[in-house]
Design goal:
Layout lengths: L15 H4 L35 E5 L5 H12 L9 H10 L5 E7 L2 E13 L6 E9 L8 H15 L4 E5 L2 H4 L10 E2 L8 E5 L7 E5 L8
Parallel strand pairs: 4-5, 6-8
Antiparallel strand pairs: 1-2, 2-3, 3-4, 3-8, 5-7
């Protein structure tokens, strides 16, 4: 999605109970989900010693496109839950002018992280909701809070645009810490409720099925 989407920054324990009953449709827009495949999340690793980094988070520019692709490919390269199409998803969203918020994290003028937010449709006609993902951080800079900083800045910018909420597919232990919850009234077809999260900015909970942008179907 994935980001989703599951993030390429976060090592997490396996979700065997969920994966064992998860068989998402092949056409599902959340591109981190395999059809009839058991999904394993990366095993938890030791937290790295914090780096003393001066991180700048800013909007992407045309000059960042190649660097964003490189970061995305590198971040998802070893993730078993990825089918390695995230860079194509971002390009498709950009081509469709659906990258409502696209941010990069920069250290010493080098792009080391990226996050995308794009509009979603909800079957009850609720407007101004967005999907989070993909979110990527270069492997050598992961577990330094960069993904979290990208997410928080992106959410802040959505709120400044009068967005009403945000949703994603992700790991429960991580996204609950950022304020996201499972909303029974809001569903993504084929995805277990345990890993579909939403955050309402105005307190209103939509009631319906979420559809992500067609860019999430890109695979080349």
């Amino acid at each position: 999605m994935n980001q989703p989407c599951p993030s390429a920054e976060k090592p997490n324990p396996a979700l065997e109970p969920i994966a064992a009953r998860w068989a998402a449709p092949a056409q599902l827009v959340v591109r981190f989900i395999y059809h009839n495949v058991h999904i394993r999340w990366p095993a938890k690793r030791r937290k790295k010693k914090p780096m003393n980094l001066k991180i700048i988070i800013r909007s992407e520019t045309d000059a960042d496109v190649f660097a964003i692709t490189e970061v995305t490919v590198a971040a998802f390269k070893t993730l078993e839950i990825s089918n390695h199409t995230e860079q194509f998803i971002i390009a498709a969203l950009r081509a469709a002018k659906a990258l409502t918020v696209s941010l990069v994290a920069e250290v010493d003028r080098r792009v080391i992280g990226h996050i995308a937010f794009s509009p979603v449709a909800i079957s009850d006609d609720t407007r101004n909701w967005y999907g989070l993902g993909p979110v990527s951080v270069l492997p050598e800079y992961q577990r330094q809070g960069i993904g979290k900083a990208l997410i928080q800045e992106g959410l802040s910018r959505l709120k400044d645009m009068n967005a009403q909420g945000c949703c994603l597919v992700g790991h429960p232990d991580y996204y609950r810490k950022l304020g996201f919850t499972n909303m029974p009234e809001l569903v993504l077809a084929g995805v277990p409720k345990e890993v579909f999260f939403a955050l309402s900015f105005d307190g209103y909970t939509p009631h319906g099925t979420v559809t992500f942008n067609d860019g999430f179907k890109a695979d080349s």
